[in-house]
Amino acid sequence: MADTLTITDNRTGKTYEIPVQDGAIKAMDLRQIKTGADDFGLMTYDPAFQNTAACRSKITYIDGDKGVLLYRGYPIEQLAEQSTFIETAYLILFGELPTKSQLESWTREITLHTMLHENVKKFMEGFQYDAHPMGIMLSTVGCLSTIYADAKRIGEEDNRRLQIRRLIAKVPTIAAWAYRHSIGRPYVYPDNDLSFTGNFLNMLFKMTELKYTPSPVLARALDILFILHADHEQNCSTSVMRGIGSSQADPYSALAGAAGALAGPLHGGANEAVLRMLNEIGNISRVPDFITRVKAGEGRLMGFGHRVYKSYDPRARIIKQTADEVFEVTGKSPLLDIALELERIALEDEYFVSRKLYPNVDFYSGLIYQAMGFPVAMFPVLFAIPRTAGWLAQWDEMLRDSDQKIARPRQIYTGAATRPYVTIDKR
Ligand code: CMC
User: Fold this and answer.
1) Which of 131, 151, 331, 417 has most Cβ atoms within 10 angstroms of its Cβ?
2) 45-59, 146-160, 234-248, 271-285: which range is least confident on average?
3) Across-strand partners of 371?
4) What is the pLDDT of residue 265?
5) Which ligand 1 atom minimizes the distance to the CA of 304?
6) Can you tell me the distance from the alpha carbon of 83 to that of 76, in angstroms, rounded to the nearest whole number?
7) What is the Å distance from ligand 1's center to 379 Cα?
């Protein structure tokens, strides 16, 4: 039997056979369902795209019920344990794990692109002393489109690859300088002897020493956090990246837009909300009372629940282990005990169990970042650095996809019907 969906239109009595492929029907196949010759055809109404696949993608797979996250088929747990961010970025972008020599040349290429043009530095110096680092970061990424005018040639594969290398290499420098700017310290130039995350720590925290030596534990912890955040399929910011890219804008402009989407509290800002919540609770003895209030609908347990994951977010489990390793170096966050107690109670409580609410990636990541010395305002910037790899992979995949066109959703118009203009004296 053919894999089709039979739709009978009760208005006309007509029957339509709509092909079903990969668990989906093509929305455009519904257009043939019309009530009359001038009828435009049936549309679907799907605010926030909750049930609409906007692309076919080979990059990231999520099974929210089973708590599975794969990049190009590889489980996130194995990548977090055995890979590095720079290798994972290669995998996400190019589809396969690199050979030894591919990894060496990829690492070298990224290292060689970490410097920023001095004009970019001047641009960053122009920001207000208390400018939010996320605002500085996304504006500066947008500014790069004026420096690299060649980036407009998005149809040329070699050119796209060059811009991809530039962005992955330069975003950490921009992020670190945004942080230094916000605390009034001089910008630190990249040190090409260090690893990707070691150099990032150098640009953030170097003071008067001639050579900065990053803590291997903290550099590795950051690497793991970067692996976990590198891609998460068609989320809000990735859809923005694809949406802007679909107009054939250059990748700097598209990435600046994606970073803007990430800056919102419902997306990249949740770990900040977790820290605020833990601070508000303030003491482990107040946890039961807080849980009671959450259950009474007086607020949410931040860092719990997810639109897609209906079991333990696999990234949260890895982050919890990483937190222990970081705290051994930095000392334990006083908020950790509160977080552990919240998690213990929530995982046993019928309210959370029946709603399938488990810790998500943000429940512990803020505690780690705080212990490493990052102010809360830097949290979304720390998310944007690794997600740059995911955004670019999705952008590149979109440009190669012959099914894609400029993104242009339809609407259901609910405004006034045609009416004559009324001059101001008659209103
Ligand atoms: N605390 C208490 N109750 C909750 C929570 C929570 N964190 N999350 C959901 N619920 C309840 C909600 O009240 C509802 O209960 P009822 O059926 O009685 O009305 C039920 O669970 C279903 O909630 P929903 O709002 O329909 O679920 P959603 O899929 O629309 O929301 C979510 C997902 C992540 C927005 C939500 O779980 C939430 O607000 N969590 C806290 C914020 C947070 O941690 N966000 C980070 C998400 S992970 C970052 C990323 O990957 O981008």
Assistant:
1) 151
2) 271-285
3) none
4) 78
5) 7
6) 10
7) 20
> What span, in angstroms and rounded, lies between the C-alpha atoms of 20 and 53?
13
CA–CA dist 369, 362 (Å, integer): 11
Residue positions annotated with a catalytic role: 267, 306, 362
| Contact by Cβ (8 Å): 81, 325 | no
Q: Helix crossing, 157-182 with 100-112: angle to 10°?
A: 50
Place of tokens 């972008």: 93
* Sequence-ordered strand ranges (E) for 24-174: 24-25, 60-63, 68-71, 74-75
CA 135 – CA 262 distance, rounded (Å): 11
Residue with tokens 């966050």: 333
Q: In degrees rounded to 5, what are phi and psi of residue 6?
A: -95, 125
Distance in Å, CA 357 to ligand 1 centroid: 7
Single out the residue of 379, 378, 389 nearest to residue 167, CA to CA.
389
Copy the structure tokens of residue 387. Answer: 């997600």
Three-state DSSP at 139 gives: helix
Q: CB of 267 closer than 6 A to ligand 1?
A: yes
Of 197, 239, 124, 234, the C-alpha closest to 382 is: 197
Mutate to test the pocket of ligand 1, among 355, 356, 364 (most ligand atoms within 8 A of CB): 355
